[in-house]
């Protein structure tokens, strides 16, 4: 017996498909939501509020170690083109600019290589004269107080132990921090006087003999608009390579979790 097609049933199916196709999607079901939630929202938070950074070099030892992860406050000094991903040239200068404080640890872009993030300590403000004489820091012709403390001891990956001369340096505004200075004949220990012009800043690494900073042409004097943000906290730290995540549990520095970089310095 031949089968009889149920036209009513077929029409109902077609109608159901049409209704499904015409159903208005909720916002969270759309591609716009996915783009907003996965791209725009994280990028906006990273650009406007806090951004994570990884410390890849030893120029800020002993304050920041290789393998430290830090949060940087992006709005601490206002916003510039470098506050945003890829440094897109949306505007010049800074919006809601705020003066940084001497002694702040700041992420910035040096003028010679504006595509690279650097992190150093702010030493010189606009109008200052900065000079290093026999390894000691002078600001406006006055020697900055420096006190020798115990050596900084560090275990090397090859199993050896390195010792560095360590000091506590105190800036004119009372900010104190530790510095390393272990090479007596380093060319950077004796410099000409650097005059810091308006809307520019002078930076130095705490590891004085192993830091490319404003004493060198690699960095030079940093314009106000090249500041990215202020270092707020160390939230994670590992002594091994960042990419060897399988070793993180055995190489984590638990004592460096969620601490301020200069905590406990007196």
Round the mean pLDDT to the nearest integer and report it: 84
CATH topology title: Umud Fragment, subunit A
Q: What is the radius of gyration?
A: 27 Å
Low-confidence stretches: 1-9, 12-20
Per DSSP, what share of the residues sits in E-state strands of 2 or more residues? 25-35%
Question: Could you name the CATH homologous superfamily?
Answer: Umud Fragment, subunit A
Strand order of the largest sheet: 1-2-14-3-4-12-13
What's the number of helices?
A: 3
Biggest sheet record: 7 strands, antiparallel
- Total DSSP E strands: 14
- Gross morphology is globular
Helix residue percentage = 10-25%
Distance between the termini: 99 Å
Helix vs. strand class: alpha+beta
Oligomer: single chain
Class in CATH? Mainly Beta
Order of H and E elements = HHEEEEEEEEEEEEEEH
Q: From the 3D coordinates, which CATH architecture would you assign?
A: Ribbon
The figure for the number of domains is 1
Describe the structure.
The protein is an alpha+beta fold. It has one domain (56-256): Umud Fragment, subunit A. 14% of the residues lie in helices and 30% in strands. The chain contains 3 helices and 14 strands. It has helices at 7-22, 31-48, 248-251, and strands at 50-54, 68-73, 105-108, 118-124, 129-133, 136-139, 142-143, 145-155, 161-170, 176-180, 194-195, 200-204, 222-223, 227-237. A 7-stranded antiparallel β-sheet has the order 1-2-14-3-4-12-13. A 4-stranded antiparallel β-sheet has the order 7-6-5-11, with no helix packed on it. Strands 8-9-10 form a 3-stranded antiparallel β-sheet, with no helix packed on it. A hairpin with a 5-residue loop joins strand 9 (161-170) and strand 10. The radius of gyration is 27 Å and the shape is globular.
